[in-house]
Amino acid sequence: MKLKHVMIVLRKEVKDLLRDRRTIISSILLPMILIPVINIVMGGGIQKFEKDMNENVMVALSRSSNSPEVRELVQERILSKNPNIVLVDAEDPVKALENNEIRCILEIENSYAEKLEDGQPIQITLQYDESKTKSQAAADIVSRAIDRFSEEVVEERIAALGLDPDFLQPVQVERKNLAPNDMGNNMMLQMMLPFMISILVAVGGIPAATDLVAGEKERNTFEPLLTTMPDRGSLLLGKYLAVTLFSMVSLVAILVGLSIGYIINPNSLTIGIDTQLQGISLDPLAVVLALLITVALGMTFSGIQIALSTIAKSYKEAQTYLSFLMLAAMVPGYATMFMQASDLSPVMFVMPVMNTVAAFKMILGGSINYFNLVLALVTSIIFVILTLMFAASLFKKEKVMFRN
Amino acid sequence: MIEAIGLVKKFGDFTAVDNVSFSVSKGEIFGLLGENGAGKTTTLRMLATMLKPTSGNAVLKGYDTQKEPEKVRAQIGILFGGETGLYDRLTVAENITYFGELNGMSRSAIRERIRQLAQAFGMTDFVDKRASTLSKGMKQKAAFARSIVHDPDIMLFDEPTSGLDVTAARDVHDFILRCKSEGKTIVFSSHSMSEVEKLCDRIGIIHKGRLVESGTLEELKIKHGNNDLEELFVRLVGAK
């Protein structure tokens, strides 16, 4: 194997790929544009959804309880501290609920006044539609308002008995959040960023890998290439480095995309959960280790992609194999996506994809474990070597190289 | 210049090439004549070091295909039939440069060679155009130029006129004769009798992996008492 030959192949492949619209779109433009767009749209969507859920909660009284006295009780005592809940008149409340004109129905027994007076419990029925998210949320909101009303009544009754309201609360629980101040609100970032980086680096080289072996075979450029001086190891390595380079380009494109998204809308990185990204103090050594793990992940997947592209008879066959690889990369990605830094176990640091997700979660979570990071890097390097050896063995197999 | 000695190639139980031996002298055109699947491509692939013989050996310009495959590849140029095998997104010059660099040429030598080849093949107008924008004829010229950029002493042609129209096939014939006039040693595979008659100094008839006959056209005609190569071929492959 000669470095000179490797570099000639690498240079040519990069030039060739940079002129390929498919590769440019899927490896560079898509992550650069799609990620901020998804984040902003998703963030905007979530914010709007949250707003819709909590604001303008329309409720109505059932036909049997729709009297001026009950309306007054509801308006004055139950909903007075909840301006977001609006009591409306509905001729047919059930139909109005069906037609989404209201979100739930309150039914209050007619003898409520006497029962309140006598210190007896009154029955309030809350009718809502479990199949409708907004109705479900409204039932919770109204329930909380009723609970508050209930507490007020209890306090009034206790006061009437001359007792201290604390009499009914022998224990008071106070919750204190000890998470570092700068990490508290970056949960969504911890969830999304490691996942996106890992998946896109793992699949970023797919268009290049498909083109560089299966594509060459299909276009009949592969056989002339095999008759040139360089040995197959040099040809493989040149192509492998080109694929790896493109998966790294995807990584840069993601980061550029995220930065663009952040500049346009700072909430985009937290997917709009009413939080702004707070200052993160990153450990430089840990960041370097995580980036090395990411590069190794890209190299591991490049090796697998080149191998699958070599096995494939045609471009389409390679695309099919590589789409399965994409799914295979997503499984460990999703499995760890919702975990927090504190949930990570050492096993996750030795699994491809999971290890990159875990490394970034650890850094963004602010609790660095260098042993786990080094473990992830060492195992990643082993995966790189194994996958490259696998690809190299296929490049030497005549049956695979000349399948068609 | 080329010595094939008892070449055998098996793919599992199937023997694609069975004990094929022939030699080709410097400046000679040797035609491998056979039907589809006779073993012509496999033989050429073994000569080009793309496939390793199961047994037997080949020596090209003194280099053993198994012991010194890189040196063998440096001596050969190859042209396949059907698609020209150019990189569509690269220009003609870039395609030629890539193969020149891979075959150990310096940048300046490649530039000079491209200038020569562009003139020789009438490519000056399109040498800087991407291959995807070229006509079939232009692509073919580019493929010719690419195959000889490193000025190899040996040329291998694997059914180079397969799927081509008359004019394009004629261009290929002219290119082969041009290579011969430059003193290159040529192995040429075909299933076309007329092509072989027109171009080859000697021929080898290959059938089901075995070289059933070889010699000059005249020798074969005299030996089998038949002036019609097609008739002779059918009789030979039918008898085996």
| Rg of chain A (C-alpha, Å) | 31 Å
Q: What is the residue-mean pLDDT of chain A, rounded to a whole number?
A: 84
Runs of chain A in which pLDDT lies below 50 for 5 or more consecutive residues are 272-276
Most strands sheet of chain A: 4 strands, mixed
Mean pLDDT of chain B: 88
Task: Write a short abstract of this structure.
The complex is a heterodimer of chains A (404) and B (240). With 404 residues, chain A is mainly alpha-helical. Helices cover 65% and strands 5% of the residues of chain A.
Descriptive notes:
The complex is a heterodimer of chains A (404) and B (240). Chain A is mainly alpha-helical. Chain A has helices at residues 3-18, 21-54, 68-78, 93-98, 112-118, 133-160, 187-203, 206-218, 222-226, 232-264, 284-311, 315-337, 354-365, 370-396, 398-401, and strands at residues 57-61, 85-88, 104-108, 124-128. Chain A folds into two domains: 3-46 and 182-401, no CATH class; 54-168, abc type-2 transporter like domain (abc type-2 transporter like fold), CATH 3.40.1710.10. Chain A contains 15 helices and four strands. Chain A has a four-stranded mixed β-sheet with strand order 2-1-3-4. In chain A, strand 1, helix 3 and strand 2 (85-88) form a beta-alpha-beta unit. The radius of gyration of chain A is 31 Å and the shape is elongated. The relative contact order of chain A is 0.12. With 240 residues, chain B is α/β, with parallel strands linked by helices. Chain B has a domain at 87-152. Chain B has a six-stranded mixed β-sheet with strand order 6-7-8-3-9-10, sandwiched between helices. In chain B, helix 3 (92-102) crosses helix 4 (107-120) and helix 3 (92-102) runs parallel beside helix 5. The mean pLDDT of chain B is 88.
